Amino acid sequence: MKCALVLREAFDRVIGPAFAAENGYAPEIDWTPTTVIMQKIAAGERVDALVLIADSMDRLVEQDLVDPATRIEVADSRVGIAVPKGAPHPDISTPEAFTDALLAARSVAYSKAGASGIYFEKMMARLGITEAINAKATVIPAGFTAEKLTTGEADLAVQQLSELLVVPGIEIVGPFPGDLQNVTHFSAAIMREARNREGAERFLAMLTQPRAIEAYRASGLDAATR
Questions:
Q1: Which of helix, strand or coil describes residue 162?
Q2: pLDDT given at position 14
Q3: Is 173 helix (H, G, I), strand (E, B) or coil?
Q4: Is the domain of 57 the same as that of 142?
Q5: Exposed/middle/buried for 43, CB within 10 Å: 0-12, 13-18, 19+?
Q6: Which range marks the domain in which residue 106 is found?
Q7: Could you give the number of structural domains in the chain?
Q8: Residue 72, C-beta contacts closer than 8 angstroms, at least 6 positions apart
Q9: Are 163 and 200 in the same domain?
Q10: In the chain, which stretches have pLDDT less than 50?
Q11: In terms of domains, do 6 and 56 share one?
Q12: What distance in Å separates the CA atoms of residue 136 and residue 222, rounded to the nearest whole number?
């Protein structure tokens, strides 16, 4: 299975152990950004189930690569900012204060491949601060941007709130303010060429249980609204 990083915290704490307890095995999951998942599928890779951005799932439905009857809406995610544990929290309460905090940072870490990083690049262009931020940014190809806080390479990290929370030794400052916020919807479905359809069905069933929804909320996600 391939899953976007956004679910990692909820899975590791609750969904994964519950699935293993009920089924006697842990599912094999490739945790990777949606953009990378889509590239691998376009190259011909096939898996049993997918959890990724809803817009990308729409495209897979159109291409008849997933079974639309199995599709479920999983959770919504917001983008936020984190700092190293114990560091001062900058004011990000308004778009103006948020912009000032980004410009004042020694280095801002963001992911080139992740949905949050793609949106962040668009937001920087909208605010006219792309050149100023990228001159000192710590850009990673994929993975958890908050890891760059723990190594001292950056003092602000941008990512989905749930992805920031995966990394120990950091603190969440908060979500992007006002109309700078971007809500991303995540969906799950079984691929047409799934080899273990029964196992995939059990996995997807876990994703909508009350304990899973509670785990999403505890990890910085919201219940699905799409």
A1: helix
A2: 95
A3: strand
A4: no
A5: exposed
A6: 78-180
A7: 2
A8: 187, 188, 189, 204, 207, 208
A9: no
A10: none
A11: yes
A12: 32
